[in-house]
Amino acid sequence: MTIKANHAVLAHPRLTGISQHHLAALVEKLARPWEAAVKDHQYQVRVGARKRAAGAGAGHRLVFVDRLVATLIHLRHDLPHAVLGRLFGVDRSTVTRAGSQIRVLLAERGCAVPNRPGVRLPTLSDVFAYAQAEGVELRLDATEVQVRRPRAGRGGQRAFVAGKKKQDTMKATVVADHRGRTLWTGFLRPGRMHDATAVRLEGIDACFRHFSEVEVLLDDGYFGLRRDHPGQAITPPRKPNRSALPEFHERWKHHRHTHSSDRITVEHALADHKRWKQLTRWTHRHENLPGHRRTGLRPHREHLKSTADGATTPHPLSRTHS
Fold it and tell me: How far apart, in whole angstroms, are the C-alpha atoms of residue 111 and residue 173?
């Protein structure tokens, strides 16, 4: 029995995780790169120019819009490819192949820049350059994604065991602005690696040296960066000794609370990432996770804009259209 759902229902924001307006913008921006990639693949298969007229031969049973929707549903709810194949009326392998194509296009886009249509930040140095040019104070933190335990007997099994969660995880670094909008997310590292080590491997030391006016709010785990880059890497103040006067302890509590309040927006950005089920618990191959992580999608909180009275209202891209 063949089950084929209504395409309008499948494209609903509850399934894709983004508004229909945002979906239409993605279709407009990714359609041409996808067509170019398909033609390039066909050229390599033919080993030369096409011998038949354009449009001849079998067409795609799964058009580009359906490929994008199927990929978003898979990222959002982690539905098996076989189930998506049933819904779209194609074979499981077609959905698998479509997902691998669309994920590459999404990952290459980078994160969007607030109030700068068409400008995106694919690298960490781009984020620092944007922050220095616009005077943005950055927030940085790491998040972990639970992964499958490597098969017994394979090397590097302990590298994925995180000391915090006592589970096999992979760690990603996220940079956000003062309103919790994701500006960049780094490649994933094994969960056992320290947060500061992971971000150093991304090249943050060089970014601090080249962009000396950028300030980044961090937690206690990045104290080494504060030591190497004073005035730029800002961590909570160190706790005074027990023998210190009470006013020193009160001052420490006040400064620590202020720092936590300013840095909390990056936690909001991490929470938005967890809305995508595959970024909460990954059950597939480890080497395929970075491609899913760097999709370049704008989370829900990134669609907030400030009003005249300081309140926040939904961005038009995040509204649900019937």
Answer: 14
Mean pLDDT, range 176-186, rounded to an integer? 88
Could you tell me if 15 and 76 are in contact, meaning their C-beta atoms sit under 8 angstroms apart? yes
Residue 217 contacts residue 263 (beta carbons within 8 Å)? yes
Q: CB within 8 A of 268, min separation 6: which ones?
A: 176, 180, 301
CA–CA separation, 223 vs 291, rounded Å? 30
pLDDT at 44: 79
Quick one: CA torsion of 313, 316, 319, 320, rounded to 10 degrees?
Answer: 160
Distance (Å) of CA 145 to CA 17, 49, 164: 19, 45, 12
Tokens of 165: 């969660």
d(CA 280, CA 265): 19
| pLDDT recorded at residue 306 | 37
Alpha carbon distances (Å) from 320 to 21, 29, 273, 280, 298: 8, 20, 19, 24, 15
Quote the pLDDT of residue 135: 92
Lowest mean pLDDT among 66-70, 119-123, 172-176, 178-182: 119-123
Q: Can you say how many angstroms the Cα of residue 177 is from the centroid of all Cα atoms in its chain?
A: 14
Write the CA distances from 3 to 84, 86, 165, 312, integer angstroms.
10, 6, 41, 42
Mean pLDDT over all residues of the chain?
80
Determine the Cα–Cα distance for residues 50 and 39; give it in Å rounded to an integer: 10
115 by DSSP, 3-state: which?
coil
* pTM for this prediction: 0.75
CA separation for the pair 276, 199 (Å, rounded): 23
